[in-house]
Fold this sequence. Notes:
Elements: E1 2-7, H1 11-14, E2 22-31, H2 34-45, E3 58-60, H3 88-93, E4 98-101, H4 107-116, E5 119-122, H5 128-132, E6 135-142, E7 151-165, H6 172-184
Parallel strand pairs: 1-2, 2-3, 3-4, 4-5
Antiparallel strand pairs: 2-7, 5-7, 6-7
Amino acid sequence: MDKYVTVPAGADELKNLRAGDYVYLTGTIYTARDAAHKRLYEAAEEKKELPVNLKNQIVYYLGPTPAREGQVIGSAGPTTSSRMDKYTPRMLSLGLKGMIGKGKRSEDVIKSMKENGAVYFAAVGGAGALLSKCIKKSEVVAYEDLGTEAIRKLEVENLPVIVVIDSHGNNLYETAVVDYKANFLE
Length: 186
């Protein structure tokens, strides 16, 4: 089922999303990858003010390529999410409500998502050029020295994602295998 979500979004808006839902995100999201997550985590552990308020935000695990002339951003495909797993429970405890990436998540992350009412979305890897067309504005807001891994504030319009893990812990990577076996292998 297709759903349209305006972001940022709180737990109340996200609780009705289910693993397998096709979702189109419109509004403001942030980017952050490994190096930015490490800095955010360290700042949070040292009780320092973060450069962005994570409450009700969605973070896209993205390190875009440079924009070509006339473009807002370069290719905007997702990064493998498991690289952020050691930092994610802390980010969720600070109010983060969603992540966009690709690949599986650890049990600790899934447990923290359920505790904090968060959702994990997948964007299609290899479709970065198409995904970039949904990004209407991009500006570096923190850690500019990290280059492509700097934190960016993005304005997106109908960014297509799939709910892989919902706020109840339902995991499409697991249920899809079971459904496939039941429908096609028996």
